[in-house]
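Course assignment 3, question 2. Fill in each field.
Student: A.L.
Task: Predict the tertiary structure for the chain below.
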Amino acid sequence: MTQLINQTDIQKAILKQQNADSRKKMILNGVLLLLLLAAPFAMYPVFLMKILCFALFAVAFNLLFGFTGLLSFGHAAFLATGGYTTGYLLSNYSGLTPEMGILAGTAGSGFRVTIDSSAGHLLCNGYPGAVATGVFLPGAVRIHRR
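Answer field:
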């Protein structure tokens, strides 16, 4: 009682399922886009910015740890450097706009990346270089707190 299944019938069934799945994804993406556009009107903007910053941090950490399996606390250190630099500049210099403070915090974090990574790689190569780069992080945090 076995029935011969035609190859074209199988392909049609697969295409039908794929079309249904893509239609569901498009509807879900549309709903998420509408929620994203409505979020500033429904939520406190500063809280929304914090959520987006932590989401960006989580995506970067997931990419590094989830995809490569490398555990790094450098993301947290560089995020903190940018945040502390921005906060320090905005609290001590009243003429500075928030946009300029954010750009300065980004530049400060980028400068720290350059210093930490170049110091570690100038001293050692390979695995010891990564360890040496990690050694410079606590020292930079201590200098930054003064």
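Instructor remarks: The chain has a mean pLDDT of 78. Residues 83 and 105 are 6 Å apart (CA to CA).
Grade: pending
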